[in-house]
Amino acid sequence: MSLIKWVDFQILGDERGSLVALETDRAVPFEIKRVYYIYRTAENVSRGFHAHRNLKQVAICVAGRCRMVIDNGYVREDTWLDCPTKGLLIESMVWREMHDFSPDCVLLVLASEHFDESDYIRNYETFLEAATQ
Ligand code: TYD
């Protein structure tokens, strides 16, 4: 079974353009406690390289594109994020890496928890041990 789980957002568009609304428990399958975005990523920079013990996230590329690698300790997959109407659902205990950011990429992330450094697993070997035990 694929790790790639998309959430499709309804486009509230009219002749003026498009609008997407993101609401807890509607478009997004958890209570949104935090929103952050990554932008102006320098050339050839990759980010992420961690998993979260409890946190769930939905990542949406609202402009430009980047490539997301996700890995549950058994399976590693990658996909382009390049569509403002589709969010990638990243469950807890999934290793993620972001690569190949376009210069105009704005990656918006919705998170189920407030920021908590102790929820991060930043070492891949530690992640593998925890994910495959
Ligand atoms: P980090 O999650 O390591 O970024 P990435 O996975 O994209 O490479 O976060 C980078 C820094 O920003 C780190 O010092 C933690 C801090 N940070 C916050 O303070 N709050 C947040 O919500 C996030 C996501 C990061």
TrEMBL record:
Domain Sugar 3,4-ketoisomerase QdtA cupin: from-to ranges: 4-130
Record lineage: Bacteria, Pseudomonadati, Pseudomonadota, Gammaproteobacteria, Pseudomonadales
Protein name in the entry: FdtA/QdtA family cupin domain-containing protein
Entry coiled-coil feature ranges: none
InterPro entries in alphabetical order: QdtA_cupin_dom, RmlC-like_jellyroll, RmlC_Cupin_sf
Pfam families per record: FdtA
